[in-house]
Amino acid sequence: MIVNNGLTVSFRPQAAAVFSSRVQGVADEGGGKPEPLQDLNGRVVGTPESRYGLSTRTLQLLKQYDVRSMSGRDLYALTEILGANDEMDGETAAVIRADIANKGWKGSGEVNTLEIFSKRRDDEMAGVKAGEVSLRFADYAIKGYERAQQTLEKLAALHDALQSEDDVQSATADGMSQATDLLNLERWARSAEKADANGQALLVDQETAESIGRAMRRAGMELPPPSSDLEDGAWARQALQAHRTWQFRHPGDKLGIDLKPADEADKKVFKEAAKPSTEAVGEQLPQQAPASPAKKAAEAMAGLQAQAQYGMSLSMLRLIKGADIASLSVEQVKQYSQLLRTGGVLSEDDAESLLPLTQRGMVDPMSYYKRDLSWLADMKAKGLTPQYATAGGMADLANVEGRVRNDQQGQGVLERLQALHQALQGDDRVKAAATDSLGQAGDQAAFERWAHVEQQGARNAEAAEPEFRSQKDVDGIFRILHRLGVELTPMQGDSSASQRLGQAWKDYQNWRSSHPGEGPAVARAPARGIDAYA
Questions:
Q1: CA–CA separation, 327 vs 341, rounded Å?
Q2: Are the beta carbons of 454 and 464 closer than 8 angstroms?
Q3: CA proximity to 119, closest of 402, 404, 361
Q4: 175-197 and 234-249 helices cross at what angle (nearest 10)?
Q5: CA nearest 508: which of 454, 470, 468?
Q6: Whole-structure pTM value
Q7: Where is the stretch described as Disordered (predicted)?
Q8: Diameter of the chain by CA atoms?
Q9: Rounded Cα distance, 249 and 230, in Å
Q10: pLDDT, the chain, mean
Q11: Angle, nearest 10°, between helix axes 437-456 and 330-342?
Q12: Helix, strand or coil for residue 481?
């Protein structure tokens, strides 16, 4: 019987044989209890370590640290720790660390790393769509950023899932620095033992010496602070001897990081019961008198007919009816295109055709591609090669024809969306939101994604999905809960967004039990996209 650890692993017959012989015995010779069933990595089946395929220390760190709110220094350390444990692809870890080091955010405060690498990827693709670089040249960077983004999304999903894992204690606020010190100590101790066995000098640099010194003193080892002169190896020999002494006195023990007490990790966050918001939020329509059952049935039928005619969900039709793309800012166009892409209205290629517009922050979206096409035509008529600005000066476009095609495609997308917006103004079957159609659609999308993830209740690494992507999503989810009138449990102490949402889901389930049939409707999958309205 082969037990997978929840992650994709290669089948290895020899490993399977060792595993099989280890677990087939029912009881030991003394008639005691049978040994616990173990997976291929030697982890007890059913434990968080086995289900998520990660070490205990990694789980403790991921329960505390959220990549959607993490400093560059902590993310840099996390990739080193995961890479050392073979828990992250080395190439992906290198991409993340190189970006942190080269783009100068290792000393930053807390940032949303999902948004950072999403922007990196979209900036590269915008350059391709704008004809500035060829896809062949940019493909390596784009793929690297995509892998980094996917990895970070999985880490965010694990952070969310671990909030409900009572068997995993959370690291303390300085757990990452402690884990980094332990990693440095473990690496140095291995190399020092090998060097000593071969009669070689024991070497250590100042930064590593300070790091391993902190780890050893935390464990109670007697060791003076490292001197400024480490070249003679005296301090390194003292450190190695102190480490050996600790191992002798603590056979089989491993150094660990500080953990939060279970009761502290479970503290709640709200100081008082949340009150319903007075803002116009959620999928809110103009106030009307309660409709009769017959009228409700007629409206439902009309909605189904509209969905069948346009091949889009009502939520997408309401968004398009309420949002005039000609009056949106560039940032709003970006949010709009992302919502339409998620809702299936725009294909990935159509959504990416708008990247030169949304990533460059240009004004007047409806005229952007028209002006660019006019400029390209003028340059061609004059026999000149179009150029673009770089940090090193002006450079020729790498793919003029590709830029022209993308300009035409992007302009076509904008015009089709505007045409559908205008057509829907006369369709009473589709009710637009009362105010801020775009903001409300974003809240609804965040709420539906959160509800989907919570309903899944993932308990392993493969199935885990992030409950939200940003604080904006969290705010949108709570706005909808407030509008519905969900009473949120009063909470105390500090808590992460994931913990807040975990408790909010319980409160929402309690609310639903007393309000059957109520709540934001889940959008239907569209049958066709905006291309039908060329």
A1: 20
A2: no
A3: 361
A4: 100
A5: 454
A6: 0.85
A7: 275-294, 512-534
A8: 94
A9: 27
A10: 86
A11: 40
A12: helix
Share of the chain above pLDDT 70, in %: 85
What's the distance, CA 474 to chain centroid?
A: 13
The single residue listed with the structure tokens 């309000």 is 515
Going from the C-alpha of 351 to that of each of 380, 423, 469, the distances in angstroms are 27, 21, 19
Higher-pLDDT residue of 234 and 286 is 234
Q: How long, in residues, is the chain?
A: 534
> Cβ(523)–Cβ(313) under 8 Å?
yes
Rounded mean pLDDT, 260-275: 55
273 token code pair: 């019961």
**Residue 280: count of CB within 10 angstroms of its CB:** 14
Query: Exposed (0-12), middle (13-18) or buried (19+): which is 416, by Cβ within 10 Å?
Result: buried
| Residue owning tokens 């005039």 | 324
Its sign, for the CA torsion 299, 300, 305, 309, is: positive
The residue that leads in pLDDT, 360 or 362, is 360
Report the half-sphere exposure of 524 (CA within 13 A, side-chain side). 15
What pLDDT was estimated at residue 470? 96
pLDDT of residue 292: 75
* Residue 44 phi, psi (nearest 5): -65, 125
Which tokens go with 172? Answer: 């303390």
